[in-house]
Amino acid sequence: MNLYPTQIQDMYLVLDWLNRSDYKTSPEKIGIFGSSSGGNLVEELAIKEGYPATAWSGLFDLEGFYNKHKNTIPKKMIISDNIAISEIYQDGANDEYYKWLIINFLGGDMSKLHDATSINRVNENSGTMLLINSIDELVPGEEILKLGEKLLKQNQEFQALILKGNRHGEGYYEDVIDMTIDFFKKYLL
């Protein structure tokens, strides 16, 4: 089972491969994108390594959510390990499922919660970010605001878009793909 921090270690393996490959990728030409848990991973690398990043429905404030929902009973919603992401519950807020995701991400070891909460590491070298979320979706829209506040305190540039409705990640693809491409054109070209 790939529990935290395995996902982050995997991202560093990809970056290492890019830097050693025949492509001779220069770090200033790397931008990173992720949706949902992938949004969490790219935001982590943007914070630690300064890469420009776009996160759609990223999970940023695991610790804050968990502490706010101590009395919420977690509930697993995935019925198969091989289910397509489009088949997973994505029709609005679901605190029970979100809490289950956090616990599952940590393998039940809540002593890792603070370390797994990437907004705790925002610093003056964090990369520019485009953060997108829906108001009433699985990932609370307020997580973007919390991350934005931390970035502002470090004098870091970011863009945020909070959409009406309850679509999660790929659910608002058509509404934000052009904005996402423009973001990377601005910061990578």
Automatic annotation (TrEMBL):
Q: Which residues form a coiled coil?
A: none
Q: Which Pfam families match?
A: BD-FAE (PF20434)
Q: Which InterPro entries match?
A: AB_hydrolase_fold (IPR029058), BD-FAE-like_dom (IPR049492)
Residues in BD-FAE-like domain copies? 3-151
User: What protein am I looking at?
Assistant: BD-FAE-like domain-containing protein
Species, as recorded:
Candidatus Methanobinarius endosymbioticus
Q: What is the lineage of its organism?
A: Archaea, Methanobacteriati, Methanobacteriota, Methanomada group, Methanobacteria
